[in-house]
Amino acid sequence: MNAPTTEAILRRLEWTVIRRLDGLLQGDYRSLFRGAGLDLADLREYQHHDDVRHIDWNVTARLQVPHVRQFTEDRELNAWFLLDLSGSVDFGSQERTKRTVSAEFVAVLARLLTRHGNRVGALVYGSAVDAMLPARHGRTHVLHLLQRMRSYQPPPATHETQLRGLLESAMRMIPRRAMVFVISDFISAPGWELALAHLARRHEVLAIRLYDASELELPDLGLVTIQDAETGEQLFIDTHDAGFRERFVRAAEENENRLHEALARAGVDTLELATDDDLVDSVLRFAEMRKQRSRLSAGGAMPVHLLRDLGPAGASSANRPEVGGRP
């Protein structure tokens, strides 16, 4: 049977996923994908539910009253996909590989974005950053992006995946503030954590972590040969050995803990995508994460040290309004 064309895959996703999401996300689009304001329009006093990140500290210190910046909203959003297409993402124990999950998620998110006039671009990583697709509009651009993901073959690996190189390239190549999706299984040499934190300071970053259930718990398959997808190293193991499977689970749990701690330290939200996930559920989890982030930003409490730093005028609460829910 011939493999489906890129056009057929996108059309299927538009009918089976995006049409369902149109109803489920109706009314939430504005809060889900928001452009960043770039032009300073005005200053005003801080009010309850203002985003504390917009506080103008110089004006606040000079006037002894918290003030926030107001911006002219830039409705157009630029989104970038940092695509890890190294050898390990071609793994999948069932019908779908991690690369398939990645491609479908990218196609759906890119189509949702471009249908509303936003632009999407991508950096493609194999053993290095091999391609850059500039941020553009339109369905044709989404088809081109999907085709590049489907046809890309990473060069023979000579070293471990170095996600740090992909993230540092993004710092240089993405010219203005954007929404950045880092889509990877995060099977990489150490050193990417600091680069991810630096990227998150400049852009709004979401980590999309790809995984397969068998990477966390080894099934009992008897004697099998396994191969490292990136180095080609092979091992002959006995999965019937209960002790070996238990050690595998413990090692996987330790690796999971280290990964989640590293992502938390970098200050990014993480969406987990398994090879057996339902794509609609995955996008709805992303939408809920965005709404939670928006609510937290809007309702952030006034930092405790701010009132102290304001001096005598801020130290007394007798004749001051509440700020961020605190007197």
Task: Report what the structure shows.
The relative contact order is 0.14. This protein is of the alpha/beta class and 327 residues long. Residues 300-327 have low confidence and may be disordered. Strand 6 (179-184), helix 7 and strand 7 (204-211) form a beta-alpha-beta unit. It is built from 11 helices and 10 strands. The strands form 3 sheets. Strands 5-4-3-6-7-10 form a 6-stranded mixed beta sheet, with helices on both faces. Strands 1-2 form a two-stranded antiparallel ribbon. Strands 8-9 form a two-stranded antiparallel ribbon. Helix 4 (98-114) packs antiparallel against helix 5 (139-151) and helix 7 (192-202) packs parallel to helix 8. The protein has helices at 6-24, 29-32, 57-63, 98-114, 139-151, 163-173, 192-202, 242-266, 279-298, 304-309, 312-315, and strands at 39-45, 67-72, 78-84, 119-125, 129-136, 179-184, 204-211, 223-227, 234-238, 269-274.
List the helices and strands and how they pair.
Layout lengths: L5 H19 L4 H4 L6 E7 L11 H7 L3 E6 L5 E7 L13 H17 L4 E7 L3 E8 L2 H13 L11 H11 L5 E6 L7 H11 L1 E8 L11 E5 L6 E5 L3 H25 L2 E6 L4 H20 L5 H6 L2 H4 L12
Parallel strand pairs: 3-4, 3-6, 6-7, 7-10
Antiparallel strand pairs: 1-2, 4-5, 8-9
Helix pairs in contact: 1-4, 1-9, 4-5, 6-7, 7-8
